[in-house]
Structure formats: structure tokens, C-alpha cells
């Protein structure tokens, strides 16, 4: 099939970013994922912050929670992954969330207000704000970021998961739970290493002796 690009296909009119799936190679976090999933399907509105240093598995863990069968059953299609990697302002984040939720914004109106209104009238929704450190650390107007987060959790049908580098979650929000991911246990770290480097898993058992 030939897909032709027209003048309509421009960077100013982008499609929403693709929603990622959880990584297949994922060891040693089953209990934690189940624990987080049970938190997220509670009837009480939940705000969960998954913290830790880079590469610990925050995004992978959050994606597995987002795709946990109980979570899928509860939220159906109203589960949204919002990658904040390239976002540096509250307005840009609000615009991105609206785009991913496919809510049209109204010209001339404050974009955060549009988002708040959309979330307040939304059905039961699970929002995952991933790599939030970008917008949190870079932005000089943290008050605006806090205001945006407060408007998100003010919507009573919106449950929030946030992942962020560091040891403390954003201030101004009453978090249901926050904490750093524990390190993988050595056997799980080894399985991960061998899964990423299959050529090293050559059948001899020398590594078992280490
Ligand atoms: N439990 C795990 N088992 C196997 N691979 C993992 C696990 N956790 C993370 N990874 C891999 O490690 C890399 C970094 O994970 P990621 O979730 O992006 O970390 P973070 O979000 O904390 O920076 C990715 O390639 C991911 O697939
Ligand atoms: Mg990440």
C-alpha cells in the first residue's frame, strides 16, 4: 500500500504518540506489579509515585501495571500512557494529555482549564505520567506544574500513576503511596543480563559457579 503525505500531514498537526506495550523481558517484579495493580483498582482514588534512579525499571514496572489484567478490566480503554520526556511546561503537558485522550482543545481558552474540565467529566480513567522528572526538574515554574497535578487529582474519576527519577515525589499532592523501586535480586538481575545478552548464555554452566 502506498501512503501519500499531504499538506495536512505536518508537525503542527501530529498524531498522538503511540501507546507503548510492556516489555517482554521483565523479571523479578511480579509481586510488586500485583501489589501496585491492587492499589490502582481500589475504589478510593489512588495517586501512586514510582521513584528511583534511571534504569531501575520504573517505566517498565508502570507499563506492566497499566496492562495488568485487573487494571485492564477496570479501566478498559481509559488507560493512558503519557511520556513526559520532551515536555518542559505545564501547558505543553496539558496539551499532550488532551491529545493522547483525543480531547479537542478550544482555541483561546487556557489549556490547563480545558484539561481540567475534560478530566472532571471523564469516565473512570487511569493516567500514567512517565519520566515526570523532565517537566519537574527543568521547569522554572514549578507552581504551574503543581497546579496542573492538583487539577488532575481534583478530578474524582482519575487515578494517577507517576514515574520519576529521584527519591521524593512532586510536592503539593497527597500521595497514596510513593517509594523507590528496590534493586532486583541477584538471580533476577542475572536472568535480565542473560536475556539481554543471549550470546553469553551458551549452555555451559560456568556462570552457575560464580
Ligand atoms: N525487571 C526487569 N527485568 C528485565 N529488564 C528490565 C527490568 N526492569 C527494567 N528492565 C530493562 O531495563 C531498561 C531500563 O528500564 P526502564 O523501565 O526504562 O527504567 P527507568 O524507567 O527506571 O529508567 C529497559 O531496557 C528495560 O526493558
Ligand atoms: Mg523511565
What is the alpha-carbon Rg in Å? 19 Å
- Which strands sit side by side, in order, in the main sheet? 2-3-4-1-5
How does the major sheet shape up? 5 strands, parallel
Oligomer class: single chain
Question: Number of domains in the coordinates?
Answer: 1
User: Which percent band covers the strand fraction?
Assistant: 5-15%
CATH 4th-level superfamily: P-loop containing nucleotide triphosphate hydrolases
Give me the count of strands.
5
Helix content: 25-40%
Distance between the termini: 53 Å
The number of helices is 8
The assigned CATH architecture is: 3-Layer(aba) Sandwich
Ligand inventory reads: adenosine-5'-diphosphate, magnesium ion
Whole-number mean pLDDT: 89
Weakly predicted, low-confidence segments: 1-13, 204-210
Q: Assign the CATH class.
A: Alpha Beta
The H-and-E topology, N to C, reads as HEHHEHHEHHEEH
**Overall spatial form:** globular
CATH topology: Rossmann fold
Quick overview of this protein structure:
The protein has 8 helices and 5 strands. With 210 residues, the protein is α/β, with parallel strands linked by helices. Mean pLDDT is 89; it is low at 1-13 and 204-210.
Folded structure, characterized:
By secondary structure, the chain is an alpha/beta fold. It has one domain: 3-Layer(aba) Sandwich (Rossmann fold). It has eight helices and five strands. A five-stranded parallel beta sheet has the order 2-3-4-1-5, with helices on both faces. The site of adenosine-5'-diphosphate has 17 residues, from α2. Magnesium ion binds next to α2.
Amino acid at each position: 500500500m502506498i501512503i501519500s503525505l499531504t499538506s495536512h500531514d505536518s508537525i503542527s498537526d501530529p498524531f498522538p504518540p503511540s501507546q507503548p506495550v510492556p516489555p517482554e523481558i521483565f523479571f523479578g517484579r511480579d509481586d510488586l506489579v500485583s501489589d501496585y495493580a491492587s492499589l490502582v483498582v481500589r475504589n478510593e482514588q489512588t495517586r501512586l509515585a514510582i521513584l528511583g534512579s534511571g534504569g531501575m525499571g520504573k517505566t517498565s514496572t508502570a507499563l506492566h501495571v497499566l496492562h495488568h489484567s485487573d487494571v485492564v478490566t477496570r479501566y478498559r480503554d481509559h488507560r493512558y500512557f503519557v511520556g513526559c520526556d520532551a515536555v518542559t511546561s505545564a501547558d505543553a503537558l496539558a496539551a499532550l494529555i488532551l491529545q493522547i485522550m483525543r480531547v479537542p482543545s478550544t482555541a483561546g481558552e487556557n489549556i490547563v482549564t480545558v484539561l481540567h474540565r475534560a478530566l472532571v467529566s471523564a469516565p473512570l480513567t487511569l493516567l500514567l505520567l512517565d519520566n515526570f522528572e523532565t517537566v519537574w526538574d527543568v521547569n522554572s515554574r514549578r507552581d504551574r506544574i503543581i497546579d496542573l497535578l492538583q487539577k488532575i487529582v481534583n478530578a474524582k474519576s482519575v487515578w494517577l500513576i507517576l514515574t520519576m527519577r529521584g527519591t521524593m515525589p512532586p510536592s503539593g499532592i497527597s500521595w497514596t503511596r510513593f517509594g523507590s523501586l528496590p534493586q532486583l535480586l541477584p538471580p533476577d538481575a542475572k536472568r535480565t543480563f542473560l536475556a539481554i545478552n543471549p550470546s553469553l548464555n551458551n549452555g555451559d554452566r560456568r556462570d552457575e559457579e560464580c
